[in-house]
Design a protein that fits this description.
This protein is α/β, with parallel strands linked by helices. It has 16 helices and 21 strands. The chain has two domains: 276 residues, Alpha-Beta Barrel (nicotinate phosphoribosyltransferase); 169 residues, TIM Barrel (Alpha-Beta Barrel), CATH 3.20.20.
């Protein structure tokens, strides 16, 4: 086992067998274009939140095969020795274009495009998909939960139910970018600069002779962060009463206030209303009520619609695993290959309509109205001239005559690597988080934010791209 973790070989074996084949066939330096995209938003939503670019960048920067990797591959007795020497000196040499992290994204548009020698493109596939699929899934789920909370604080409580340590850590980061306020995962706080939160568990309460003693001890230790878990025995008749008594006996006489109480079981709507009334009657109007216990966006929406008096939510397994739809279906496909100095578009044909790919090296634009709301995205051929008015094609309804004139058109992606060198400055994690919030509040339409039957954002093609796709479908209908 390696002493130091190197994830460069985090790749499906076929990436190596194909790369060995490219090398033997003299294709090692043949340029290609690959797109990473997805076909469907999780939870039947209208959009997703792109996340994972920071870790994509780190993977590319650190992609190298050390002597142990080469010896392991040699021991498999399948690879050409010159290919292994090639890997021993490998460094990514291409260009990468990407949506900025935190972007609102839609199905079937290239989130990341890699333009590089075939081997370089191929070796990135599994790691890119593993990173983007996971972090985008969790950021998207987090954003839905934050929307449902209607301005109330949300904390990630999910580490203990995550799918291993990395899922807990990078899920916490994605959750924060997606909009949650804090995490209970301390290492994520240290690694990524995320605010951490948390107070006590039932074991703290049960370890004392009485609930009152447990709360009093905690109040003396953490007088400015006195949030008591009140459902160990009885929420209304025991937990809440002891929290109020500690507030009156110790906190208030010493110049502090009861920060709040947390309920982790029972009828959260009913109990929160009872607690709010009793807290207010005791002059503790400023004490918050926190809820946890297998929450998600649907349960939170339901609680709020019932008039629950909740100020904050701790969300665990349903967030960190995106339990309602735990797979983000990103794919990575060849869309062009260089021959005689120019890129030849490639297309994958399928009897399943959604699996027919969009060919060629492409650019992605977003069109905005005068109020800054995004009205459609546009795919074009790379470096295709864009000027207004512009005629576009809705690929789902190609008979429509669509012309955009009074719009602002912006390139939706940035160039991240050029000739193998990082040229992009990644915004801070808080800047990425704020970027998400800005788009949700100012760029998305309210109709896109619905959890049930949301408006579906339009993805249009330039006429040149649409005509190229139809031509390739017809030419490749029966294969060659």
């Amino acid at each position: 086992m390696k002493e130091k973790r190197n994830v460069s070989l985090l790749m499906d074996f076929y990436e190596l067998t194909m790369s060995n084949g490219y090398f033997v066939e003299g294709k090692a330096e043949q340029m290609a274009v690959f797109d990473l995209f997805y076909r469907k938003n999780p939870d039947d939503a209208a959009y997703s939140i792109f996340c994972g670019l920071e870790d994509v960048i780190e993977y590319v920067k650190n992609l190298k095969f050390d002597s142990e990797d080469i010896e392991y591959l040699r021991s498999l007795n399948i690879f050409n020795e010159k290919f292994l020497n090639y890997l021993a000196n490998f460094k990514f040499k291409g260009d990468i274009y990407s949506f900025p992290e935190g972007s609102i994204i839609y199905p079937n548009e290239p989130l990341i495009t890699v333009v590089a020698p075939l081997i370089d493109c191929q070796l990135l596939e599994t790691a890119f998909l593993a990173i983007v699929n996971h972090e985008t899934l969790i950021a998207t789920k987090a954003n839905r939960i934050v929307l449902a909370s209607e301005g109330r604080a949300v904390s990630d409580f999910g580490a203990r139910r995550a799918h291993n340590i990395d899922s807990a850590l990078y899920g916490a980061k994605a959750s924060y970018i997606g909009g949650v306020n804090s995490t209970a995962t301390t290492l994520a706080g240290e690694m990524f600069g995320i605010p951490v939160s948390g107070t006590m568990a039932h074991s703290w309460v049960m370890s004392f002779d009485s609930e009152y003693d447990a709360f009093l001890s905690y109040a003396k230790l953490y007088p400015t962060n006195s949030i008591f878990l009140i459902d160990t025995y009885d929420v209304v008749h025991s937990g809440l009463q002891n929290a109020i008594k500690v507030a009156k006996d110790y906190l208030i006489p010493n110049g502090y206030r009861l920060k709040g109480v947390r309920i982790d079981s029972g009828d959260l709507a009913y109990l929160s209303k009872k607690c709010r009334k009793i807290l207010n009657e005791n002059g503790l109007n400023d004490a918050i009520i926190v809820a946890s216990n297998s929450l998600d966006e649907y349960k939170i929406s339901s609680l709020i619609s019932q008039g629950a008096k909740l100020d904050s939510f701790g969300v665990g397994e349903n967030l960190i695993t995106s339990k309602s739809e735990p797979v983000f279906g990103g794919v990575y496909k060849l869309v062009a290959i260089e021959e005689d100095g120019k890129f030849i578009p490639k297309i994958k044909i399928s009897e399943t309509l959604e699996k027919i790919t969009n060919p060629s090296f492409k650019d992605v634009y977003r069109m905005y109205n005068s109020e800054g709301r995004a009205i459609a995205d546009l795919l074009t051929l790379h470096d295709e001239e864009i000027k207004l008015p512009i005629k576009v094609v809705d690929p789902n309804k190609p008979w429509k005559n669509l012309v955009f004139e009074d719009v602002e058109i912006k390139n939706a992606r940035v160039k991240v690597f050029e000739n193998g060198e990082l040229i992009y400055t990644l915004p801070t994690i808080n800047e990425r988080r704020n970027f998400v919030r800005h788009q949700v509040e100012n760029v998305l339409w309210d109709e896109e934010k619905r959890f049930v039957m949301p408006h579906i954002h339009y993805l249009d093609f330039s006429e040149n791209l649409y005509n190229l796709k139809i031509k390739l479908i017809q030419e490749n209908k029966y294969g060659k």
